[in-house]
Amino acid sequence: MAANPKVLLLPGWQNSGPDHWQSRWEARHGYLRVEQHDWMQPLRGDWITRLEEVVLAQDAPCVLVAHSLGCLLVAAWAECSRNTHLVQGALLVAPGDAEREELRGVLHSWSPVVLQRLPFASVLAGSHNDPYCSLERAQAFARAWGAQWHDCGHAGHINADSQLGDWPAGQALLHTLLTP
Q: Which of 81, 98, 128, 138 could make an S-S bridge to 107, C-beta 3.0–4.6 Å?
């Protein structure tokens, strides 16, 4: 019998604060946050290397739960890793668009965004009024990555400011990926 998947939390730029659903899930469910060396000046190569290290250290398949820049990390990692078979699925929430003019300066190493089909099941949850990614761009990411689209309505960046609490709807999406 296969081991239960390990849930790895992949926060975005500047990490996820204590009121963010990712932090609440970490505290409540014991999921593992992938800690990055530099949350404020994220370099794609450094973040990919760190994710690779954490995936390889697990003793069971992984399900990735990414928010914002973490979604772009999943796509970039999947493009270059030889270990994507260790990932059972990915929940991609509110991807940030590193190619937006106002983000290019700080997220320079994340452009161009990797737009290659992911080699594992994925669901992308997006919002109509996300200040960091237009609805059209989020839907284009879902198509490019082969992710099932989930419409969260007008939920902003689907973060602490969205006042989601433990975000039970997100947990329901995650559970679709936890069972093969």
A: 98
